[in-house]
Amino acid sequence: MPIKKLSVLSLMFVASFPAFSADHDAWKIMSNTFMEIEKFEGHRDADGAKVTDKVNLAGQLFISNSSSKWRYFIEHKESMRNYGYAISGSDNSFIRNRTQLGITRNMYKNGNNIFDLNLTYRKESNDGVTDRNARPSNTLFWLMPSGTYWINEKLAFSFWDAFYHYDNFRADNSYEWESEHGIVYKFNDSTTGRLMVYTDWTFDNDFNKNWEQNQIRGYMTKIIDPKWSISPYFRYFLSERSYDAANTNYVTQRADGGLRIGTEVNYKLNERLTMWAGFAVEKTEWEKPKPNGITSGSDNDQTFYLGQLGVKYLW
Question: What range does the record give for the signal peptide (predicted)?
Fold first, then answer.
């Protein structure tokens, strides 16, 4: 299963950034600094100790000028993997470092109808603990067209398609296609919803599919008042499968069902500073058990938790 490349949160920031200021003739920088914890219930390392899957510390910069066709994105993330609850390391712990540089060009704009093209470079490396070899580093490029077409004042078609190329990745992924296609509906000036079909497929060097995930995803953004907004969402699993490297027609693992429910809450302290928090829980059932205590019970249940806390600032 591949690492997650592009968060919906980042996509929403890139799309909505100009709304933070009415000054159309100056470059603006918005930063987003946050911590997030990813936890599989029952997860243990190879020695049987209870661990948290990831503790991420991240910083993002979004650079934009509403009078320019160009936007820029910078991110650096440090991920502490397989660390104990007290942030204690062991021979099974490591730190993953990731830096991304992205540039987006607006190719077409007519009113609210837009078409953008994004190119992003990622460099990722892994630092092992003392006396343990680090995992190899890798690079990744992606090209992502995206756009929105408004059918009328309330209804729009929206999409993004990301095409990835890996170099020296730790798994057998050389290429990947990730996308969302669906509809946007504006209920009123304070409430907007999206219903999307999500697809993520990975391929080896010979373009044989070795993993796939397909979901229905729904998002709602509600502006409660000038300070508070809330964005609940869900992810419903249509399918998820892993394939044997030697025989791509042979399924080695599959999800029999899954659902994630989550939300993000924003509180705007002033025109520049916003505090935000997010939480999600995901329940899935797998055909076969997963190692290290991630699944349990006769149905191979898996429970995943995500917690986030961050600060956005318009410089």
Answer: 1-21
Q: Which fold has domain 28-314?
A: Porin (2.40.160)
Give the pLDDT confidence of 284-297 residue by residue, as tens digits: 999 999 888 888 88
- What are the domain boundaries of the chain? 28-314
Beta bridge partners of 121: 101, 141
pTM score, whole prediction: 0.88
pLDDT digit string (tens) for 247-298? Answer: 767 899 999 889 999 999 999 999 999 999 999 999 999 999 988 888 888 8
Please report the DSSP string for 213-272 in residue order.
EEEEEEEEEEE-SSSEEEEEEEEEEEEEEEE-SS-TTSEEEEEEEEEEEEEEEEEE-SSS
For residues 311 and 273, the answer to whether their CB atoms sit within 8 Å is yes
Largest alpha-carbon pair distance within the chain? 62
Q: How far is CA 217 from the centre of its chain?
A: 13
Q: Tokens representing 32?
A: 């987003």
Closest by CA to 283, choosing from 274, 272, 296, 271, is 296
Taking the C-alpha atoms of residue 202 and residue 1, their distance in angstroms, rounded to an integer, is: 9
60, containing H or E segment: strand 52-64
Banded pLDDT at 16 (limits 50, 70, 90): very low
Contact in structure between 101 and 121 (CB atoms under 8 Å): yes
